[in-house]
Specification:
ten-stranded antiparallel beta sheet; 3 helices; Immunoglobulin-like; alpha+beta; single chain; signal; 10 strands
Length: 165
C-alpha cells in the first residue's frame, strides 16, 4: 500500500484544526528519516512529527486527539513580529501546488511562528507525497523546507497514535 493511502486510512476519522505545542511537554517516541516522532500528553497523547532545518525553521505536524484535530506549526525567525493568537493569511506551496490557509500567531521556544489548521486530506496527502513546502505571506516567502522523509515519519506517527489507545 502506498504511504498516502495508509495516511488516508489512518486519519480518515480526524477532523483537522489547529493546536499549540510546547517543547517541554513532548515525549520521545522514535526518529524516522530526520524527523522526530513525539507524543504530546497535553493534547490527549497526540503524536506529531518534528524537524528543525538549516534555515532555522522548526516544523511540527501533529494530531490533537483531545479535540479530534490536526495541525501544522511552522516557526522561523523570518516571521518577524508575530502576535500570539492573531490570525495571518498564508499560502502553502507543496512542489508548486498552492493552498490558501490562515495561521494563528504563536511562539515555539521563543521562535515566532504560526499554527495552521487544515481540514483537507488532500493537504496531508500532498505533504506526504511532495518534496518541498514553502510558506508565504502577502510580502512573499517566509520559509522553504525539504519534506524528505515526511511520508515515512507520518506513517510512524500514525503507528504512534494507534499505540496511544
Amino acid at each position: 500500500m502506498r504511504p498516502a493511502k495508509c495516511l488516508v486510512t489512518g486519519l480518515a476519522a480526524l477532523l483537522l484544526s489547529g493546536v499549540m505545542v510546547q517543547a517541554q511537554d513532548l515525549q520521545a517516541f522514535d526518529t524516522v528519516e530526520g524527523w522526530e516522532i513525539l507524543v504530546d500528553p497535553t493534547v490527549g497523547n497526540g503524536c506529531l512529527i518534528n524537524a528543525e532545518f538549516e534555515d532555522g525553521s522548526d516544523v511540527r505536524i501533529g494530531f490533537d486527539m483531545a479535540a479530534d484535530s490536526g495541525y501544522v506549526l511552522a516557526a522561523n525567525a523570518a516571521w518577524g513580529d508575530i502576535e500570539q493568537g492573531a490570525t495571518y493569511p498564508l499560502t502553502f506551496s507543496l512542489d508548486g501546488d498552492v493552498y490558501e490557509a490562515e495561521g494563528k500567531g504563536l511562539y515555539i521556544d521563543d521562535l515566532p511562528g504560526v499554527d495552521i489548521a487544515f481540514d483537507s486530506m488532500d493537504f496531508l496527502m500532498g505533504l506526504a507525497e511532495k518534496n518541498s513546502m514553502e510558506l508565504s505571506t502577502s510580502n512573499g516567502p517566509v520559509m522553504t523546507i525539504d519534506l524528505s522523509g515526511s511520508a515515512a515519519a507520518l506513517l510512524r506517527a500514525i503507528e504512534c497514535q494507534e499505540q496511544q489507545g
